[in-house]
Amino acid sequence: MSDTDKERGPDREEGELAGEVLPEREETEQGEDFAEQEEDELERVKSQLAYLAAEFDNYRKRMAREKEAIVSFGNERILLSILPFLDNLERAISQSHASGTTEALLSGVQMTYDQVVAELRKFGLEQVSAVGEPFDPNLHEAIAKVAVAGKPEGTVLAEGRKGYLLSGRLLRPAQVTVAQGAAEAETPEGVEQGSADDEA
Q: Looking at residue 140, which CATH number applies to its domain?
């Protein structure tokens, strides 16, 4: 028996010295460490995702609240600009009652109307030109045709309801009465009947 065999005790496996780790055990420990690192990384990513999901949910709720506030108070500026007109109308009504005439009321209403139109121009509102203009289907809506001597066909004669543009885009068409041509004013049956008699 050699000295080496004597030094190796019966409880030691072959190839194992004191303090020495076999390659198989070292690989197993490294694999366990790697698995633990992967689990830690996975937990960290899960935690980040949960945090981001909560942040996005808070952002979505905040945006919904802000949108609701904009809808509720979005007209505040225009309503504040209209309140003085209501004040003027109330003054005109009370003055007409005090004087017993309608002239004060009419004057107050006209003044208030002019003030409203001027104020709404600041918001981009413009009136559509209609009376005396050629009929434009992009701006006007014909509600009647009338034969009028001396007026070219298609001329706007009267306005039933004013039309408006908002920043150059049509908000509401003007409802208008349009001049009808002399040929259209005649009864079509009479014209057709006369031409048929001539042919016969």
A: 2.30.22.10
